[in-house]
Design brief:
about 10% strand, five-stranded parallel sheet
Length: about 160
């Protein structure tokens, strides 16, 4: 988020499969700690019980939820963790909760797009937006995620070797 000169005062929307996402929970905690206002957006079937208890604003309509957002973080639809019908179809999911140009137009004009990967193109996000180097931070986010995991594993390995 260095592109925005810090997180304090930013409005960040986390969109999609909040229920099954570890990324959503950890990001909500970290972003709030850093002074961001956090929103979660998605279908009621993909929200945890009482999501407002995380100190976020909850939206089930993408357009209302994205209004004036600085950062939009899309989440992968984690179908492998789902038993039963959480969404009617992938096509309908994209229609209501997938990020496209029209829904993005509700956010701030300089809003940045994030996604922890891997991306289900045409489900969570339109390919054109995912690949838009002027707005999308997805490649940087994935690369940094790998570097952070490597550093954590190295620290754990050192601790185990010297512990």
């Amino acid at each position: 988020l260095e592109n925005k000169k810090g997180t304090k005062g930013l409005t960040v929307a986390t969109c999609g499969d909040i229920l099954h996402s570890r990324v959503a929970r950890s990001n909500i905690s970290a972003l709030k700690l850093l002074g961001a206002q956090v929103r979660v957006i998605g279908p009621t079937t993909l929200m945890p019980p009482h999501p407002e208890s995380f100190g976020v604003k909850v939206f089930h309509d993408m357009r209302k939820g994205l209004k004036d957002c600085d950062i939009i973080m899309m989440l992968r639809l984690q179908t492998e963790r789902m038993e039963g019908n959480f969404v009617p179809s992938l096509r309908e999911y994209f229609h209501f909760w997938g990020l496209d140009e029209e829904k993005l137009s509700y956010a701030k004009p300089d809003a940045l797009i994030m996604h922890p990967g891997p991306i289900n193109r045409g489900v969570e996000i339109d390919s054109q937006l995912a690949d838009d180097l002027g707005r999308s931070l997805i490649l940087q986010q994935v690369e940094m995620g790998v570097a952070v995991r490597q550093a954590v594993l190295e620290l754990l390995g050192d601790a185990a070797a010297h512990g």
